[in-house]
Amino acid sequence: MGFRKDKKEDYLVLKKSEKRKSSNKRTLTKSSSKEVPLKDRSLGEKILIGICIFILTGFPFIVIVCGLTVVIYTGISEKKADIEYRSEKRESNESLYGKYLYLDKIDEDVYKVVSEDENPEKRLEWNEEFCGYYDDLSDGYVWYDVKREQWRYWFNGISSDYKDYGWMVYKPEGWRVQKDYADWIKLPEKYDRSKLWYIRQEE
């Protein structure tokens, strides 16, 4: 009987010992899985963590700020250029051609600038308010852009559809109209071209 009792006690002690070991293992596993505090990390690890945090939080903010800056700057630049263009339109051509612009026909709807004594076919008068030479037959204006060395045209019924813009230029491929600042498009086919004319560019 004593032998069995001792054996039973040994068995219970062994079980308790195994439970303690198992409990210690779990505690050790839990403690080993805990993150090391930032203050206990090495300088290299701290720098790496700081860079990661900056990339995740600061970088998108910087991208957004830079994007907004570019958009605002572009808008201001275009507005400034638009104002400059509008003031350019008002430069008088009278110092170049005088109060009247004399034109002679050289081809179908094509003219050249001539002097008054060359028996000109057209005589257009400078309109200070509109800043262009007016042609009553086509109900249009012509203006020479000195900066771009280019004749520009405004024909009521076409140009007027484009509100503040609408100036037209003639190129070898055909007529183009200004839809918006720095946005020139091919003149849509819906417009009647029977009254359109242009001045041959001097070379």
- Low-pLDDT parts are 27-33
* Helix coverage percent: 40-55%
Strand content: 25-35%
Instruction: Give the spatial strand order of the biggest sheet.
Output: 6-5-4-3-1-2-10
Number of helices: 3
Radius of gyration: 43 Å
Name the structural class: alpha+beta
* Head-to-tail CA distance between termini: 131 Å
- Give average pLDDT, whole number: 79
Principal-axis shape: rod-shaped
In this structure, how is the largest beta sheet organized? 7 strands, mixed
* Helix-strand topology string: HHHEEEEEEEEEE
Extended strand count? 10
Question: Which features characterize this protein?
Answer:
single chain; 203 residues; alpha+beta; seven-stranded mixed beta sheet; three-stranded antiparallel beta sheet; 10 strands; rod-shaped
Please explain how this structure is put together.
The strands form two sheets. The protein has a seven-stranded mixed beta sheet, with no helix packed on it. The chain has a three-stranded antiparallel beta sheet with strand order 7-8-9, with no helix packed on it. The longest helix is centred in the N-terminal third of the chain and has 47 residues, at 43-89. It has three helices and ten strands, in the order αααββββββββββ. 41% of the residues lie in helices and 25% in strands.
Short description:
By secondary structure, the protein is of the alpha+beta class. The chain has 3 helices and 10 strands, in the order H-H-H-E-E-E-E-E-E-E-E-E-E.
What's the SSE blueprint?
Elements: H1 2-33, H2 43-89, H3 94-97, E1 100-107, E2 110-113, E3 122-127, E4 132-135, E5 140-145, E6 150-155, E7 168-171, E8 174-180, E9 183-186, E10 198-199
